[in-house]
Write a structure and sequence with these properties.
- With 200 residues, the protein is α+β, with helices and mostly antiparallel strands.
- The protein is built from 5 helices and 2 strands.
- The protein has helices at 2-38, 80-112, 119-153, 164-167, 170-199, and strands at 44-58, 64-76.
- A two-stranded antiparallel sheet has the order 1-2.
- Helix 1 runs antiparallel to helix 2 (80-112) and helix 3 packs antiparallel against helix 5.
- The longest helix has 37 residues, at 2-38.
Length: 200
Amino acid sequence: MESSKIKADRNDLNTAIVVGALVIAWLLFDGIRRIVELFGTAGSVTVTTRVPAQEITAAIGDGAPAIVDSATLVVADVNTVSIISLVLAITLRALCLIAVAVLGVVLCRRLMRGILFDRVNTRLTFAMSIGLLAAGLIGPWFENMGLNGVVAALGGEFDYQRWLLFSDGIPLFVAAIAVGVLVIVFRRGTALQKDAEGLV
């Protein structure tokens, strides 16, 4: 019974490792794809962003009335700082999430070796939590700076939807909190294990 439970745990951890590797590959692909799309039109940048709600005729069949609040913009003459900010928004967010996935794989491998409660696992989960939080903050921060320049090149201002960018990071903030709870579990478990060892 015990051996079957251990085997099931190992299978679960192996699955997590495989999923982690796939996630890393996808994040690399997606980051490269987004940068390529950003510079898809020579002399311009291409961004998808929220815009003031407006009525259009959607090209579906004979056409249908619709209201859109986001659009893909192709804009020329965007200042260099804004372009760099858009690149940083993509690359730093991707790097943070890749780092989290790598740390998750390392943690799973340590758990497979029977290492459960120790300082390294606590630090790994803490770093994962910080990485998720950073991804949710850094991406929107630099994207906001970049979109300010894009909209300015069109003669407008990006103030109306600024904070909605950070709402896109809510799932990452929730994940950071969840992993943060694991930090507490590992920290308490490590302390209890040390106390138990001291009694032996």
